[in-house]
Amino acid sequence: MEKYPIVYIRGYAMTQGEVESTFNSPFYGFELGSTQYKLGSDSRPNMHIFESPLVRLIEEERYVSTFNRYVSSTNEPLPDSVPAGKWRETLWIFRFYDPESHLLGTNKRPEVEDYAEKLAAFLHKIRLACGSPKEFKVNLVAHSMGGLVARCYLQNQSLFSRRSLKSTPPTPVNTVFTYGTPHKGIVFRHGLGWAEDIRDLIGFQGSDTFGTDTMRRFLSLKKNQELHKFRAARKDISEDRIFCLVGTNYKDYVIWVSKHAVGPASDGLVAIESAYIQNSARAYVHRAHSGPFGLVNSEEGYQNLVRFLFGDIRFEVSLAPMTIERDLPNLNQGEAIEFLEINVDVAIRGLPTYLNTRRDIDNSSLIVPMRRAPSGKYIQEESGKETHLFTGFLRKPKPSTNHVDDYLRAAIQVKVVPHYTHKDMVRASRFEGEAILNDRLHIGVPINLDLNGIRYRWGEQSDEDAAPTAQETHITNGSGTFHFPFPEDSQDYFCCHGIIVRTRAWE
């Protein structure tokens, strides 16, 4: 994909101290890295350093910081300051908290619409600084509340009716990438609904921003529309161009009160089910909302970011509609499958980390409700519906990189565990975690985008790649849909189904 300027929008600063700390950081935290340790072959910890998304974008993608080059001393983009042909690889920081600092401001908290108004003006000035090329667009990269500011810019129906923007044309957006954004608001765990009501009523330091009524207002959503529905005001971007990174590690979030109020199945501040936009691409990683184990300063976050921004192939992985032919052996009388729990890990060849991890241990696994049909087989409650596992992006190797073969390769580990209803107090019939599928699918997509040449194999089945048969392959206008049958040891349970992978050029 072509490169475009990156604009970083940071998240919520609740206290004045956090505002001041943000103000004193030139890059608003985008320059923060992390130092972690992993167990080495000698059973000693090995240091793993992630330098920060900012440093990696500068070092690996040749992006240029605009400070002391193309902006004024107050971070105002300077007209026609970016040399011709250099505008695509520029990195800009939207410093929207500066007016709230002790040095520059009144400490008054604006509404999200006010931040979006400033973002609109900032993006327009970036366009002028770059010489207003015809093909100009920006990539918005946002953490937490910053993603809501980006959505307000894109969704709010009356934003450009504001006096300051009446003569300002909207700036086109190429993509939006959000880290841990509360797209459905911040919801507390069961029993603490009263605390949400108090938060939304008082609105301390703008905390009511994450309440239902306020979000509907600044996102221009109707009462019957879900908060995570994306509805572009100007029809210039769709959910297809949005990626949401979802954190699943609530324990390592640094703010104790928050992680205990929101609870498990969250990143410590944002619930897993609140952290994505409907129909958007998304990945789940075992990272906290922020801090040393945070989403932004993580290898997993960065690898998803650069593949989304600069990738060449988009691939979507789903389970075909499932019918379970038979039960696990040795069941007690009266037991029946209630739901399937699905764990999914996705890896890309050559990367030191997973791009996606959805696991029961993190409360992020997929749940598919099942029921017994009159035939005695089990079918999904939502009959005929695919179960979406992951949307990812593959990137061609750079010309200077040595690659093993002519394929871009990914591995998808899938584990399917049936959960049974039971009448007795004690379960004596099965082992906990007994799976009807637990295997790794390896897929290879040709670098030259010849989709007919896709290869696959199941990890436990063979070391030899195979090609889908003609009946399993459908190519339309350069996009491919491929059906991969389950490995032989799982076919006793599943009827005629498998994994579906859809690929297309990402432009």
Short description:
The protein has eight helices and 22 strands.
Overview of the structural elements:
The chain has 507 residues and is an alpha/beta fold. It is built from eight helices and 22 strands. The strands form four sheets. Strands 11, 12, 13, 14, 15, 17, 18 and 19 form an eight-stranded antiparallel beta sheet that branches. It has a seven-stranded parallel beta sheet with strand order 4-5-1-6-7-8-9, sandwiched between helices. Strands 16-10-22-21-20 form a five-stranded antiparallel beta sheet. A hairpin with a 2-residue loop joins strand 20 and strand 21. It starts with 5 loop residues before the first strand and ends with a strand. 40% of the residues are buried. About 3% of the residues have low confidence.
List strands and helices in order, with pairings.
Layout: E1 6-9, H1 16-23, E2 34-39, E3 45-50, H2 53-61, E4 64-65, E5 90-93, H3 112-129, E6 138-143, H4 145-155, E7 173-179, H5 193-202, H6 212-218, E8 242-247, H7 256-262, E9 281-285, H8 299-310, E10 313-319, E11 323-324, E12 336-348, E13 354-358, E14 366-372, E15 378-380, E16 387-394, E17 407-421, E18 437-446, E19 455-458, E20 473-476, E21 479-485, E22 498-505
Parallel strand pairs: 1-5, 1-6, 4-5, 6-7, 7-8, 8-9
Antiparallel strand pairs: 2-3, 10-16, 10-22, 11-15, 12-13, 12-14, 12-17, 14-15, 17-18, 18-19, 20-21, 21-22
Helix pairs in contact: 3-4
